[in-house]
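dude i think i finally got it to work??
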Amino acid sequence: MALRIIQDEEGRSWQVWGVQPTAVYQNAGLNPLSDEAKVALVRRQQTSVDPQWAAGWLAFETHGERRRLTPYPSNWTDLSERDLAKLCSEAYVVRPIRGR
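look at this
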């Protein structure tokens, strides 16, 4: 998984990484084509993932704020810091998870 650290125009530091549903299953030790993974995908979509995010997203995180962008450029790891900061400014702000 690629991880980039960027600064926006306000000087805030953001961690940026791509999220792909199959990578989540592989990291959990699940075969993305297995019945167990398919059940997990259905549960996840029913409980927390809107269909617009099913193909994956570019995640942006800074202290106290998270954002998601979909669709995103496949070459995002090669983009300049300025271009990534622009994508961050266009990304959807994710509501905080209660209890965090």
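Strands lie at 3-7, 13-19, 57-62, 65-69, 92-94.
im so relieved honestly
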